[in-house]
Amino acid sequence: MTPGTVMEIGRQAIETTLMLAAPMLLTALVVGLIVSIFQAATQLNEATLQFVPKLVGIFLVLILFGPWMLQYMMDYIQRLFGSIPQLIG
């Protein structure tokens, strides 16, 4: 196994991690921004007001994108395990 293949496996792992985390992170960002604008407009500064909408948003994203995320992860793992003979030999 050459350093290039190790770097390629690491790059693919980071890419997969970012692809799987992106929907949840973007949802938390958008919901947080909307709630922050609402808090600024109403001068209602309650820390727990941010938590529940983000939790609901991430839960909905997991319901909507969960099958895609699972399939994406399974494809990556199958490719990684399938390439083991070429990496060893």
UniProtKB/TrEMBL annotation:
<keyword id="KW-0966">Cell projection</keyword>
<dbReference type="Pfam" id="PF01313">
    <property type="entry name" value="Bac_export_3"/>
</dbReference>
<comment type="function">
    <text>Role in flagellar biosynthesis.</text>
</comment>
<keyword id="KW-0969">Cilium</keyword>
<keyword id="KW-1003">Cell membrane</keyword>
<keyword id="KW-1133">Transmembrane helix</keyword>
<keyword id="KW-0282">Flagellum</keyword>
<dbReference type="GO" id="GO:0009306">
    <property type="term" value="P:protein secretion"/>
</dbReference>
<dbReference type="InterPro" id="IPR002191">
    <property type="entry name" value="Bac_export_3"/>
</dbReference>
<feature type="transmembrane region" description="Helical">
    <location>
        <begin position="20"/>
        <end position="39"/>
    </location>
</feature>
<feature type="transmembrane region" description="Helical">
    <location>
        <begin position="51"/>
        <end position="70"/>
    </location>
</feature>
<dbReference type="InterPro" id="IPR006305">
    <property type="entry name" value="FliQ"/>
</dbReference>
<keyword id="KW-0472">Membrane</keyword>
<dbReference type="GO" id="GO:0009425">
    <property type="term" value="C:bacterial-type flagellum basal body"/>
</dbReference>
<dbReference type="GO" id="GO:0044780">
    <property type="term" value="P:bacterial-type flagellum assembly"/>
</dbReference>
<keyword id="KW-0975">Bacterial flagellum</keyword>
<protein>
    <recommendedName>
        <fullName>Flagellar biosynthetic protein FliQ</fullName>
    </recommendedName>
</protein>
<dbReference type="GO" id="GO:0005886">
    <property type="term" value="C:plasma membrane"/>
</dbReference>
<keyword id="KW-0812">Transmembrane</keyword>
<comment type="similarity">
    <text>Belongs to the FliQ/MopD/SpaQ family.</text>
</comment>
